[in-house]
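Example record

One chain of 95 residues, shown exactly as stored in the release files.
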Amino acid sequence: MTVDPRHGRVRQRTLDHRPHEFPRVNGSLVARRHRYGYAAAEDDGYAPAYAHDPDRGAADPLILADQDFTGEPVARVHLPGRRPLGFHGNRIPDA
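Predicted structure tokens for this chain:
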């Protein structure tokens, strides 16, 4: 989307018809002109996910290997309480 606040217009142009969750731009360019956006790449790293455990009433964040979604998680964090199933997180670099 291109936002033109001076003229009160927004222009939308589809760049890719494939669905992407959480597309991003370089964090240092947020709200500034940029050329590239980033989305998940198949077989190229790790994917964050949640596993809901109704018996505990909790959802644990997981890290899955992109090349083996059905295998054991690379990491699992046991949280003491419930998180909404639609809850999303984000990663930021160390300061």
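Notes: The chain has no helices and five strands.
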